[in-house]
Amino acid sequence: MKLKSLLLRYYPPGIMLEYEKGGKLKTKSIDLLELSPSTDVGALVEEIQRAEPLITATRAEQVKLLVRRLQEKLAPQGSHRFYLFKVLRAHILPLTNVALNKSGSCFITGSYDRTCKVWDMASGEELHTLEGHKNVVYAIAFNNPYGDKVATGSFDKTCKLWSAETGKCFHTFRGHTAEIVCLSFNPQSTVVATGSMDTVAKLWDIQSGEEVFTLIGHLAEIISLSFDNSGSRIITGSFDHTVVVWDAGTGRRVHTLIGHCAEISSTMFSWDCSLILTGSMDKTCMLWDATSGQCVATLTGHEDEILDSCFDYTGKLIASASADGTARVYCTATRKCITKLEGHDGEISKISFNPQGTRLLTGSTDRTARVWDARTGQCLQVLEGHTDEIFSCFFNYKGDIVITGSKDNTCRIWR
User: Fold this and answer.
1) Rounded to whole angstroms, what are the CA distances from 297 to 52, 171, 196, 304, 316?
2) Which pLDDT value is given to residue 77?
3) What is its main location (predicted)?
4) pLDDT tens track for 280-336
């Protein structure tokens, strides 16, 4: 094996190794999830050298420089404020979803007007309108980290695959017998998964356009799905109150996670693939061991349905958003609630961390989005201006831009 190059991954912090083995170029990652601004870099690099033969003594100084660069990115941010950059009157009918590519150069919007639009982040200009669906475009995604393809899932029971660069439609995936309401690419961008109101999920080959597997087992609608970071497993959450873990390589069921007593609203793997987080209309989140399928914690405290939940990039923190108008932050290790986010006057339907894990963004039916300190729960800023509820909001990969999508038919870019 011969090391060819070292690359940085800022969020979560890590170093990517490109190496040659048997004449083929391969990659592996060194995750540095515990890295902090106070970490002893010299001691850490010695530890990396002991564990990774590709990092020889001659590479030690280079690795130290890379780790210091990662530390700089993790340094506490000042009180960055977001200002409205552009209002996009994106569609003639309400929006359904918003998604960003990893670099933050583009984002997409889905709508009841049966189209998906691709937008340039820097200028706010429309790049392409993806037309062809015969009903609402509900689920949308980029094939991150590459960002050169877009998948759209529709109430017309089909999923379409598009070029993000030209707007050309590569494939139309047909086979579901009801509305498609969730979808996701695997990390390798070889497969796209779709979840439907017909109770099944399907995996589709991006190159050939053929169906790979149908995941059968749920007794009610599938409304959430996601791959783990290796692409080897996929989870599906359903109105039947269960979450199923599937082997993405064989299509076989690995575990059924039984414990919630109402519909599932969100599902997510932790970055290291060891844990699964599920949110439910039963007012709780549950944390599961991804290997055994056993529940390891039930996170309580909300007084109404949980509408969204997520890990931060490192998996150290968990956030939940509820119809009770509050959000909560939990420590993954202790399973304890760290802080409660109070201030919205309506349901919170969306919550997400910034890449550094220091800020939270929430979107609410009260027509505002809010930026919070993830540790203290202090509201740092209220993003106002939408005239109807906000159902989608995200930070970009750097954490310096926010996108909000609203039922007022507009999308706003904040910088």
Assistant:
1) 34, 42, 29, 19, 14
2) 67
3) cytoplasm
4) 999 999 999 999 999 999 999 999 999 999 999 999 999 999 999 999 999 999 999
In tens, the pLDDT along 287-300 reads: 999 999 999 999 99
